[in-house]
Amino acid sequence: MSSIIKIGNSYGTLISKKILDSLDIKLGDEIDLEIKDEGIFIKKHEKAAFRENFIKSFQDNGVINDEKEWLDWQGFDDEL
Questions:
Q1: Is the dihedral of CA 39, 40, 42, 45 positive or negative?
Q2: Comparing C-alpha atoms, which of 26, 78, 14, 28 is closest to residue 51?
Q3: How many alpha carbons lie under 13 Å from residue 75 in its C-beta half-sphere?
Q4: CA separation (Å) from 12 to 4, 7, 46, 67?
Q5: pLDDT of residue 55
Q6: What are the residues whose beta carbons fall under 8 Å from the beta carbon of 71, sequence distance 6 or more?
Q7: What is the pTM of this model?
Q8: Are 47 and 31 in contact (CB under 8 A)?
Q9: By C-alpha distance, which of 33, 14, 34, 17 is closest to 25?
Q10: How far apart are CA 80 and CA 75, in angstroms?
């Protein structure tokens, strides 16, 4: 059992090291919280793959079609 505590202007709870270890969550890791019918679901945040981050970094800069075609090349991931 755990209780809700005040942390600055927010609220939080303590999670035992045993539970965090079983989820492979370490100090400083990002987590995702989801509200489910049964309660709150906690899981380790999965970081986006290099390809996704690479493409996203260009989306706001107006990548032209030729560059998009190059990024979609099937061999792109094999090179990494």
A1: positive
A2: 78
A3: 2
A4: 6, 6, 22, 45
A5: 72
A6: 51, 54, 55, 58, 63
A7: 0.49
A8: no
A9: 17
A10: 9
The per-residue pLDDT for range 13-54, each reduced to its tens digit, is: 999 999 999 988 999 998 999 999 999 998 888 876 677 777
- d(C-alpha 34, C-alpha 29), whole Å: 16
> What's the rounded Cα separation, in Å, for the pair 25 and 6?
22
Rounded-to-integer distance, Cα 5 and Cα 51, Å: 39
| Structure-token pair, residue 52 | 């996704």
Q: What is the three-state SS of the chain?
A: CCCEEEECCEEEECCCHHHHHHCCCCCCCCEEEEEECCEEEEEECCCCCHHHHHHHHHHCCCCCHHHHHHHCCCCHHHHC
How far apart CA 48 and CA 18 sit, in angstroms, is: 27
